[in-house]
Design brief:
The structure holds 2 protein chains of 2 kinds.
Chain A lengths: L8 E3 L7 E3 L16 H6 L6 E6 L11 E7 L2 E8 L7 H6 L3 H8 L7 H16 L5 H29 L4 H21 L8 E2 L2 E2 L5 H26 L2 H7 L7 H6 L4 H5 L7 H4 L20 H25 L18 E8 L4 E8 L5 E7 L1 H6 L2 H5 L4 H11 L3 H5 L1
Antiparallel strand pairs in A: 1-2, 3-4, 4-5, 6-7, 8-9, 9-10
Helix pairs in contact in A: 3-4, 4-5, 5-6, 5-12, 5-15, 6-7, 7-12, 12-15
Chain B lengths: L2 H11 L8 E3 L2 E7 L3 H10 L7 E9 L4 E8 L6 E9 L5 E3 L8 H12 L2 E3 L59
Parallel strand pairs in B: 2-5, 6-7
Antiparallel strand pairs in B: 1-2, 3-4, 4-5
Classes of the chains: A alpha+beta, B alpha/beta.
């Protein structure tokens, strides 16, 4: 038998037919193959006194299955290389092989803490392809449920962020808020997390009594409860001093890194798709786009908390202005849009979600590109983290709030 | 639809555009040869009458006949999304210039397009696979890739195109889905 070299293995000296595992395998820190790019070669060359540390893929604070290779100098992070793909499902390929209605359930698990926003942008893109007008009541229901989902997502962010800074209590508190909203949405959509609720041309079901009574009940005490939650962190000196000045980014860098959402607004740029490129019924609603200028982790946290209050305002207006009427446009069961292209972007809790869809006239999309904000934000982690300590590494990442389901698609 | 914006685009980029500028809903589409992408995008980014500071999306597309790289841009100077379609990239050896010199954040999106379509972005300093394992040799979102998964052995195998691991029987290997996009 010829002993061919096998990545990660070598022949035993006693018996060449037996292959032994090398110390470095596919899951080792240093890859067992020659560097593919200049950057990879540069990263995997150690300087004086430096070492590698492999974090993940099953690290509890990476918010999913992410592996990060850290290059350390003592306790300082010199550089890092995120390794993705552990959750890759090939959603875009699956969507190209599903019909237009099936796409909605395929994209649901992308950002599993804010699924409604994952459904929203494909649905909007398909409506553009089909030239459908969505009934106003359906738009109001979409905004209402979407803003609820945004609050649930931001509430969870608060818990995660504090957890990564070492505080256990806030996540227990924030789950109270999130659980109530999730149960509420379950009453509306029938699912707690993967809602599969939006339809091309409307929504799946009308508002029902269960949902409305839960919502009214929650709204009456939501503001007070959220304020109480916030005092827990905002007045905590350890938390504030730890988060301030951590992972600072300025507007120009943020734009060059294609950042959107709260992470961009925390640098002072007021870009919010709801105002910058209005869609749905947002032009009719009265709400502010909070911005901050510091651009650090604390600013990103405070900005999200401010957004919760704005979402409450939007929900209040939706409830007061909710029109009567149908919740679905009249459409055939089998959709065959004319050949064409459409792009739709929405503002989610993490930033801009977008879909670029190409139709070739059949009942399946020819190409469906999903743009996910988590993916884009994760690549700037390395930029924000240079020179910080390992302990701050997770805090900075948590403050960008990526969800690995969306990153890996 | 922003008609004035279309006129501005036409007067500035009319000579590079491969097709007339089209508008539909809130989208304006500019089609250019792939080699011209860096110059056109730099002009769109820098010139005060355009100021497209935000790269909203970068997508690779395999139309079955050619490869495209599609950029979606946002600017406060217009109420439309601008879609720049860099077209005419050969399917058998797709190469196109990178735009990471304008938006560093395009790096991962270009890596994704490389991983999925084999589009080589010249000038991207870190062009390696991002989702698929390093020893993987296929490019999954190309139209000549059929999902090779366990579903092919399921009782319903072959019913839907996604359950085939090879080109459907009775068709030549070149028979793939095509569109004029």
């Amino acid at each position: 038998m010829t002993t061919t070299s096998h990545p990660g293995r070598h022949a035993s000296a006693d018996d060449p037919r037996v292959l032994l595992d090398d110390e470095i395998g596919v899951f080792g820190t240093v890859p067992p193959y020659p560097p593919r790019t200049e950057r990879e070669a540069e990263f995997y060359t150690l300087g004086d006194g430096q070492m590698f540390l492999n974090m993940g893929p099953q690290h509890p604070s990476t918010h999913g299955v992410l592996r990060i290779v850290l290059k350390l100098d003592g306790e300082k992070v010199v550089d890092l290389d995120p390794v993705l793909g552990y959750l890759h499902r090939g959603v875009e390929k699956l969507c190209e092989n599903a019909d237009y209605h099936q796409v909605i359930s395929q994209v649901d698990p992308l950002e599993y803490v804010s699924s409604l926003f994952c459904e929203w942008s494909p649905v909007m893109a398909f409506e553009k392809l089909l030239d459908v007008d969505v009934p106003r009541r359906a738009e109001y229901i979409r905004v209402l449920s979407g803003e609820l989902n945004r609050i649930a997502s931001h509430a969870l962010f608060m818990g995660w962020f504090a957890l990564d800074l070492g505080g256990l209590t806030p996540i227990l508190w924030s789950f109270i808020e999130r659980d109530e909203i999730v149960e509420m949405l379950a009453a509306l959509t029938g699912q707690r997390m993967l809602f599969n609720y939006f339809r091309i041309g409307g929504v799946n079901g009308d508002l029902n009594h269960d949902f409305m009574s839960r919502l009214g009940d929650w709204m009456s005490r939501a503001t007070g409860q959220i304020e109480a939650n916030l005092t827990l962190l905002n007045q905590n000196e350890i938390f504030v001093r730890r988060a301030r000045g951590l992972g600072v980014v300025d507007t120009e860098t943020a734009l060059a890194m294609c950042m959107t959402g709260p992470n961009l607004r925390a640098t002072g740029s007021p870009f919010d798709v709801r105002r910058a490129h209005p869609y749905s019924i947002y032009p009719e609603l009265d709400f502010d786009i909070p911005t901050r200028t510091e651009g650090d982790s604390l600013a990103r946290y405070l900005l999200r908390m401010e957004e919760i209050k704005q979402s409450l305002r939007i929900i209040d207006q939706c409830l007061h202005q909710m029109p009567d009427g149908p919740i679905m446009a009249k459409l055939p069961r089998l959709l065959r849009p004319r050949p064409g292209r459409a792009y739709a972007a929405i503002e989610g809790p993490r930033g801009q979600y977008a879909t670029y869809a190409i139709s070739d006239g059949t009942d399946q999309p020819f190409r469906m590109r999903i743009h996910d904000p988590s993916f884009v934000h994760l690549q700037s982690v390395g930029l924000l983290m240079r020179g910080d300590l390992i302990a701050d590494c997770m805090a900075i990442m948590a403050s960008l709030d990526p969800v690995m389901g969306g990153v890996d698609k | 639809m922003d008609r004035a914006f279309r006129a501005r685009l036409e007067s500035r980029f009319g000579d590079v555009a491969t097709e007339p500028i089209r508008q539909r809903h809130d989208e304006t589409e500019l089609r250019i040869p792939a080699a011209a992408a860096p110059d056109v995008l730099r002009a769109l980014h820098d010139e005060p009458e355009f100021r497209f500071l935000m790269l909203s999306d970068l997508a690779g597309v395999d139309t079955g006949e050619q490869m495209q790289v599609v950029y979606h841009l946002w600017s406060e100077t217009t109420s439309d999304w601008l879609r720049v379609v860099a077209e005419g990239i050969a399917r058998d050896e797709p190469r196109t210039p990178s735009i990471t010199f304008l938006w560093k954040g395009a790096e991962w999106m270009e890596r994704e397009a490389y991983d999925m379509f084999w589009i080589v972005f010249e000038g991207n300093r870190d062009l390696r696979r991002i989702y698929m394992p390093p020893d993987y040799t296929s490019f999954p979102l190309r139209k000549d890739f059929f999902l090779p998964d366990d579903a092919a052995r399921s009782p319903g195998g072959g019913v839907r195109p996604m359950e085939r691991s090879h080109a459907p029987q009775g068709t030549s290997a070149g028979a793939i889905r095509r569109v004029k996009a």
